[in-house]
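Z., the sequence and structure:
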Amino acid sequence: MVKKNIFSILVALIIMYLSLANSHTFDKVSFINIPNIDKVVHFGMYFGLMSVIILENRKAIKSTSHLFLTGLIPLFYGILMEILQATLTLTRTGSFYDALANSVGILVSILLWLWIKPLKKEIIR
């Protein structure tokens, strides 16, 4: 199971590092001064995580409901990261809006897969 999902685990570990690292680690990126850019980053991280999960498990996901149930894994992981930011770190805070951006990234990944999967079958015919 771990071997089959190695890229999902690696992406999750990278997200964990980025979520729990000291906020001063990212001071060097201050040249990007766009308001709420972190929400775009959250969207991208969880879009990427869900996309990797889908790709690694595409043969095992048999239905739309199974796909949405699979989406609960990164959803709860993202909520956990926000809770850990609020409780374990001194320079980070958990945010409802970050969790919302995570959720939107997951949802867009799922919807994109549902749109692409039939197209892929049509192209193969």
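DSSP finds five helices and no strands in the chain. The chain has one domain: 6-21+36-124.

Let me know what you think.
H.
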